[in-house]
Amino acid sequence: MINPVPNAPRLTVRDLRAVAVEVPMTYALGTSRGAITKAPLLLIDLATEEGIAGRSYLFCYLRAAAPAIAKILEEVLRLTKGDAVAPVDLWAKLAQRFALIGVQGIVRMAMAGFDVACWDALAIAADMPLARLVGSRPKPIPAYNSCGLGLMAPDAVADEAEKLAQGFRAVKLRLGYPTLKQDLAALHAVRRRLPDVTIMVDYNQALTVAEALERGHALDQEDIYWLEEPIRHDDYVGAASLARALKTPIQIGENFSEPAAMAAALAAGAADYVMPDLERIGGVTGWLTAAALAHAHGIEMSSHLFPEVSAHLLAATPTAHWLEWVDWAETVLEAPLQSVDGCALAGDRPPATGLPGTRRRSRAIACDGGYWHFVYFSVVIGRTALISANGVWRILQGTFCSRPKRRATRTVRCRRMMSLTSPATRSNARLASTT
After folding, report:
1. What is the pLDDT of residues 354-375, one digit of tens each?
2. Alpha-carbon span 409 to 407, nearest angstrom
3. Contact, 40 vs 183, CB < 8 A?
């Protein structure tokens, strides 16, 4: 791959570091697939021989997934150490290495996190925002607030919708209650409070095709903007039948595994809109291919999660549609994405991700009664340990910093959390909490 920016220095992979953190969500997300109250994130730092660092983060869905992804990143580092930071070439090399196990699940997530960090490093080396590096410029992108609005009583969801609509012109409501009547009750409650706000709805794959047809026909009368993932994400035949039968546009794509899956969905006519996810589509490299596919098919393309990077990529997407706004990573960002008059606006300076180094800001941790409520668990490639965000435990040059003077070890709590770490580390690490 030719260096995207001729004047930028050639970068060489030197090291990778992954720190897993669990941060509180401002609004609980109750979906038909379960409730989420904390966001398990994996923060990735790429170090280069030239001293430039690139960064990214992954949303792991399950806390237990973070150490597994970090383990895959060990292999990524082993294969790429000393290679030029050329993301397209690196993706091809890693895809070949992982062909037998498959570029799916946590393997693909690890590769995507590495890919985004590579692009971030290139943007920093070129001293330009990622949007410019990929051929565009930062620009306002229409955004809908996707925090919260999970399954709850109609009045409660309406109250939350009023809060989330402040500064936005659109919100997304999760549906998938046991009955259509309950779905409509929630939707009507939100609509009464927000008569002039655009509403998208998301079923999180809760329905059968028959159920989706029944509820979809009812929702056709409700002036919603799109109907997202009503059925199993990979049932493209079923989704195509819904797209033909319903007036409300069908939105899918957050589960596209690399651009090939998106190509198959488009060939089947399975969607009116698409919304790739950065860690599933293949990072920045995969996104650019997906954007070209959407352009070729004349289909509008939105983002799923990762708003900080997605704002840059949507700026370079010919059929850019909506940015999904979530604040789940703001706790660990130095420069959270800004919204102005219902639009997301990426910064005009690197880094694209807004992430600092592995020693993050401390306000993700709260202590009450001697227990850490929001625990940072660190998985550093080659050296795994637990740390708290405020420096009770820090990983610095592979060693722990000193503990606070006043401390009380919570043995039961410690045992439960230590299961995340390797046996070798468990013998050397303890989680301490202050009283």
Report:
1. 665 444 443 333 323 222 233 3
2. 7
3. no
Separation of alpha carbons 382 and 342, rounded Å: 43
* Cβ-count burial 14-30 (b if 16+ within 10 Å, e if not): bebbbbbbbbebebebb
pTM of the predicted model over 0.70: yes
pLDDT in tens, 47-57: 999 999 999 99
Give me the pLDDT at residue 369, please: 29
Using omega within 30 degrees of 0 as the cis cutoff, is the peptide bond preceding 351 cis? yes
Q: Which CATH number fits domain 132-345: 3.90.280.10, 3.40.1170.60, 3.20.20.120, 3.30.1360.120?
A: 3.20.20.120
b/e per residue 327-353 (b: at least 16 CB within 10 A): bbbbbbbebebebeebbbbbbeebbbb
166-203 pLDDT tens trace: 999 999 999 999 999 999 999 999 999 999 999 999 99
Instruction: Please report, for the chain, the start and end positions of each structural domain, with discontinuous segments joined by +.
Output: 132-345, 367-433
| CA atoms of 9 and 401, how far apart (whole Å) | 34
Those residues whose C-beta lies under 8 Å from the C-beta of residue 11, and which sit 6 or more positions away, are 48, 49, 50, 52, 84, 85, 121, 122, 125
